[in-house]
Amino acid sequence: MIRPRETGYRDELLADGTVHRTYEDGGQEWRRRAPDGVVRWRDERGGTGTDELLGDRIVKRVLADGTVTYGRDIGYGRTLWGHGERLTVNRTSFGGRMGAVLAGIGIAGLAVTAAHLPPLSLTPEEEEELRQQAQSSSSGGGDGGGGDTGWDGGDWEDDDASWSDDDFG
Are 85 and 3 in contact (CB under 8 A)? Predict the structure, then answer.
């Protein structure tokens, strides 16, 4: 079993359509989903980058300097990053709060294991394959073998409540 450093966060949807994310360790991000579905963010230290859900619950984070880190959404509002050193937990969502309760009472299914680790690297071809898998599973056509990722590629400002507070933990 892996014991990552857990960092909780809360999201607040602002009037301008951006999301203000506050981390329990003091970090802050302002996030906006672009029309292409990629989330663009900036933080309190002046850092910027993007988060993109590739498919198979893999999140690609690219910093302004080109550094790439992958995370994996492991359910209940939890995303495991890199070598398993960090677990972000969405304290805003019901899933995140429920996950904390279940983990607190020792539900073994919530343990973080090596099977949860995201890839350390992907080729551009592997990334594109994951994007295609996500696209085919979200369009509902055929049996893509994937399931609902809980992520909606719409704009936060849409009237159909497309903002999900679990977006890219």
Answer: no
